[in-house]
C-alpha cells in the first residue's frame, strides 16, 4: 500500500462509511433498535476496570484481533471463543474485539463467539462513524464502544456518546495528543484512552501515555493503548498515573495466551 499513514486513516474511514451504508440497506433501523433493546443487559465495562484498579490489580482490556493494517495477519489459528477464555484465565478484566472485516479480518460473529464463551465485559472495537453503529453495537451485545477523536468532529463525538449512554453502554474515548485530549475532556466519558501510536507516522511510543496521563483530571480513568509488551511497561505506565491498559498484538502472537497474559500482568503461573 503506497498511501501515507494519514491517507490510510482517511481511507479506512471512507471504507467504513461505505460498509455501514451497505449494512444499513440490508437491515432496517427499527429492527436494529429493537435488537438493541432486547439484547442482554450490559456487563459494566467501566465498573470492571475501576473495581480492578481499586483492588490494586491492573485493569487489562485484552484484545482479540486476527489482523491489522500495519501488521497484516497476526494469528492464523484464530478462535475467538478459545482466545477469550485464555484471556480470562490469564487475568484480563475486559475484552476488546475487532469487528472490522476489511482491515482487521474481524466480524460480528467473532464478537458474539467471544461473548458467549466468557462473562467479561466487552468493547466493540471498530471505527464508529455513524449512530447506526451505536445501535448495532448494543444489538450484538457490546458493553462499551470506542470513539476515536481523530476520526470524529466534536458534534459527532458528543452525539454518539449521548446515544451510547442512553443505551447503557460505556464509552472509551481515544486520544493521541493534547489537542485531542482537550476535545475529549469536553465529553462526559469517564474512560480516556491514550493511543501511543501516532496515526501520522505510525510510530508507537509509550512515552506518549507517560506525558499525557498527568494532564488528565483525577475523576477520569486513564487507559494506555498500543506498544505495551511486558510487566516493566505496565509498571512504568502505572508510575505515570495510568490505571488500565489495552493490549492486543503482543499477546495475540503468543502460543500460550494464558501464560503470556499472566506474565504481562506479573502474575505467577
What does this structure look like?
The chain is α/β, with parallel strands linked by helices and 269 residues long. The protein has a single domain, classed as TIM Barrel (Alpha-Beta Barrel), CATH 3.20.20.70. The chain is 45% helix and 16% strand. The protein has helices at residues 5-26, 29-38, 45-54, 80-90, 108-117, 131-139, 154-166, 178-184, 207-213, 231-239, 249-252, 257-265, and strands spanning 59-64, 67-68, 72-73, 94-98, 122-125, 144-148, 170-175, 191-195, 221-225, 244-247. Strand 9 (221-225), helix 10 and strand 10 form a beta-alpha-beta unit. Helix 2 (29-38) crosses helix 6, helix 4 runs parallel beside helix 12 and helix 6 (131-139) runs parallel beside helix 7 (154-166). The longest helix has 22 residues, at 5-26. The radius of gyration is 17 Å and the shape is globular. 42% of the residues are buried. Mean pLDDT is 93; it is low at 1-5.
Helix content: 40-55%
Q: What series of H and E elements makes up the topology?
A: HHHEEEHEHEHEHEHEHEHEHH
CATH superfamily: Aldolase class I
CATH class: Alpha Beta
Helical/strand content category: alpha/beta
Question: What's the quaternary structure here?
Answer: single chain
Strand content: 15-25%
Brief write-up:
The protein is built from 12 helices and 10 strands. With 269 residues, the chain is α/β, with parallel strands linked by helices.
Can you lay out the helices and strands and say which pair or pack?
Elements: H1 5-26, H2 29-38, H3 45-54, E1 59-64, E2 67-68, E3 72-73, H4 80-90, E4 94-98, H5 108-117, E5 122-125, H6 131-139, E6 144-148, H7 154-166, E7 170-175, H8 178-184, E8 191-195, H9 207-213, E9 221-225, H10 231-239, E10 244-247, H11 249-252, H12 257-265
Parallel strand pairs: 1-4, 1-10, 4-5, 5-6, 6-7, 7-8, 8-9, 9-10
Antiparallel strand pairs: 2-3
Amino acid at each position: 500500500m503506497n498511501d501515507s499513514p494519514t491517507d490510510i486513516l482517511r481511507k479506512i474511514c471512507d471504507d467504513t462509511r461505505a460498509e455501514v451504508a451497505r449494512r444499513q440497506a440490508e437491515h432496517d433501523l427499527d429492527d436494529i433498535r429493537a435488537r438493541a433493546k432486547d439484547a442482554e443487559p450490559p456487563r459494566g465495562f467501566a465498573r470492571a476496570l475501576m473495581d480492578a484498579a481499586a483492588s490494586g490489580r491492573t485493569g487489562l482490556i485484552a484484545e482479540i484481533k486476527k489482523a491489522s493494517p500495519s501488521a497484516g495477519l497476526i494469528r492464523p489459528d484464530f478462535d475467538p471463543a478459545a482466545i477469550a477464555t485464555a484471556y480470562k484465565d490469564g487475568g484480563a478484566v475486559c475484552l476488546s474485539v475487532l469487528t472490522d472485516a476489511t482491515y482487521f479480518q474481524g466480524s460480528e460473529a467473532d464478537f458474539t463467539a467471544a461473548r458467549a464463551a466468557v462473562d467479561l465485559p466487552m468493547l466493540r472495537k471498530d471505527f464508529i462513524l455513524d449512530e447506526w453503529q451505536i445501535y448495532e453495537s448494543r444489538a450484538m451485545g457490546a458493553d462499551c464502544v470506542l470513539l476515536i477523536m481523530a476520526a470524529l468532529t466534536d458534534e459527532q463525538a458528543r452525539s454518539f456518546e449521548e446515544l451510547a449512554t442512553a443505551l447503557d453502554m460505556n464509552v472509551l474515548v481515544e486520544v493521541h495528543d493534547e489537542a485531542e485530549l482537550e476535545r475529549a475532556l469536553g465529553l462526559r466519558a469517564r474512560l480516556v484512552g491514550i493511543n501511543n501510536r501516532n496515526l501520522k507516522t505510525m510510530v508507537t511510543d509509550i512515552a506518549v501515555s507517560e506525558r499525557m496521563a498527568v494532564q488528565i483530571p483525577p475523576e477520569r480513568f486513564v487507559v494506555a493503548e498500543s506498544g505495551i509488551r511486558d510487566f516493566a511497561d505496565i509498571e512504568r505506565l502505572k508510575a505515570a498515573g495510568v490505571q488500565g491498559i489495552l493490549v492486543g498484538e503482543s499477546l495475540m502472537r503468543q502460543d500460550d495466551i494464558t501464560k503470556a497474559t499472566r506474565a504481562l500482568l506479573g502474575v505467577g503461573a
